[in-house]
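Quick review question:
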């Protein structure tokens, strides 16, 4: 049995955590071993980087865009080497809450660095590892941020224009890679969002099983 790599993307507050846990339970009920992780912060090194990225250093929120991109890439490199690739090699399913596309959307879209710069950096950091499926939970950031039940972190407080650019960057990424992405309207109920994911994962698992039998 081969491993399967799945990522969830979207602006903050769209309900990724809820759907990640739904998918975990579904896959485990169908006999798959599942590793759930996140970016930034999926490793001990990543947790330290996450603290800097989301809350700044010594109370300062000022991290230069290129430094920010490098920190995300460092987190991702360690995440892939320590957590994701070993699990995939064991034949497990890896579900990550955010991956490369968040860097592309937030840094290239929100921070206005070039898409090629960020993509090349992330692909180098991960040795070209991409998910088999990416679920983009899409919602107007003005609506999704009303769902947040904690104080805004450094990324969440970047402003409406930043969040709108980020959302559009996610949608552009999905349009460019329709085979990998599935865009789901996250303004629907939790059950409706899950139904869309469940229908797609059944197809994806079927195609993976077919590859093993071929």
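Suggested answer, residue by residue:
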């Amino acid at each position: 049995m081969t491993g399967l790599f799945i990522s969830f993307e979207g602006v903050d507050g769209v309900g990724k955590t809820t759907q990640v846990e739904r998918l975990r339970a579904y896959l485990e009920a169908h006999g798959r071993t599942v590793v759930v992780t996140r970016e930034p912060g999926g490793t001990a090194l990543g947790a330290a980087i996450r603290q800097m990225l989301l809350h700044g250093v010594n109370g300062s929120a000022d991290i230069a865009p290129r430094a920010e991109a490098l920190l995300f890439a460092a987190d991702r490199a360690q995440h892939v080497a320590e957590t994701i690739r070993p699990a995939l090699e064991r034949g497990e399913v890896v579900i990550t809450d955010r991956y490369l596309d968040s860097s592309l959307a937030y840094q290239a879209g929100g921070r206005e660095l070039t898409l090629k710069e960020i993509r090349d950096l992330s692909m180098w950091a991960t040795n070209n590892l991409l998910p088999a499926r990416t679920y983009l939970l899409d919602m107007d950031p003005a609506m999704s941020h009303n769902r947040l039940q904690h104080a805004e972190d450094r990324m969440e407080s970047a402003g409406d224009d930043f969040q709108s650019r980020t959302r559009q960057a996610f949608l552009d990424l999905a349009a460019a890679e329709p085979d990998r992405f599935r865009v789901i309207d996250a303004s629907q109920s939790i059950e409706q969002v899950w139904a869309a994911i469940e229908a797609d994962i059944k197809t994806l698992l079927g195609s993976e099983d077919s590859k093993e039998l071929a």
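Why it works: The beta strands are 4-9, 34-38, 93-97, 133-138, 181-185. The chain has one domain: 4-212.
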